[in-house]
Design brief:
Keywords: ATP-binding, Coenzyme A biosynthesis, Cytoplasm, Kinase, Nucleotide-binding, Transferase. Its main location: cytoplasm. By secondary structure, this protein is an alpha/beta fold. The protein folds into two domains: 130 residues, Rossmann fold (3-Layer(aba) Sandwich), CATH 3.40.50.300; 62 residues. It contains nine helices and five strands. Strands 2-3-1-4-5 form a five-stranded parallel sheet, sandwiched between helices. α4 packs across α5 and α6 crosses α7. The chain starts with 8 loop residues before the first strand and ends with a helix.
């Protein structure tokens, strides 16, 4: 993925339950465009999309719900049980996601643009960013929030977190770290300060 032609890009990431969406919304309140990799991943397999058509052709009609949308539960079961099928799916979707991400980054008209992605570092997306921001909370907070939000067990929450890049590794890779284990009003104050810094950096890059 080539870097967005005109825009200064902030990569925003963090582990499950860290509050990436809430922080992204705070930046949006400052008029900043947020390109969300999770949303794009859903868009490329939406109804009538090329991605969904190819998945249906490959796996058969049983992979679709009655309304023609993707049966995500069935697809997950297949790819977790068969690495070859997972590789096929990745080979299909990654270029579609990359193309849509580039398009959305280039289309952004705000002073800078945010690329939010849970796997920003794991998928080496940080190399396309001018700077990176990790949204950070203690692991026990991640666990509690994930259980409450997704209605899963403690074991499941711990398993998801264990499969992700460690908190320490994310902190080491980040250029900025935002503590999100506080009142939202305090986080919002820090987002305002970060926004002002990113505005200045983005303006400097255009001189």
């Amino acid at each position: 993925m080539a870097r967005s032609k005109n825009n200064w890009i902030l990569g925003l990431t963090g582990g499950i339950g860290c509050g990436k969406s809430a922080v992204s919304e705070l930046f949006e309140q400052h008029g900043i465009t947020v390109v969300d990799a999770d949303i794009i991943a859903r868009q490329v397999v939406a109804l009538d999309s090329t991605g969904l058509h190819e998945i249906g052709k490959h796996f058969g009609a049983d992979i679709l719900n009655h309304d023609g949308t993707l049966n995500r539960t069935k697809l997950r079961e297949i790819i977790f049980a068969d690495s070859e099928q997972k590789n096929w799916l990745n080979a299909l979707l990654h270029p579609l996601i990359r193309e849509k991400t580039i398009s959305d980054l280039n289309a952004a008209s705000s002073p800078y643009v945010i690329l939010t992605a849970p796997l920003l570092f794991e998928n080496q997306l940080d190399k396309y960013c001018n700077r990176t921001l990790v949204i950070d909370v203690p692991i026990e907070v991640q666990v509690a929030r994930t259980i409450a939000r997704d209605n899963i067990s403690l074991a499941q929450a711990n398993s998801i977190i264990a499969a992700q890049m460690s908190r320490e590794d994310k902190q080491a890779k980040a250029t900025d770290i935002l503590d999100n284990n506080r009142a939202l009003s305090l986080v919002a104050q820090d987002v305002t300060l970060l926004h002002q810094r990113y505005m200045a950096l983005a303006n400097e890059s255009k001189i």
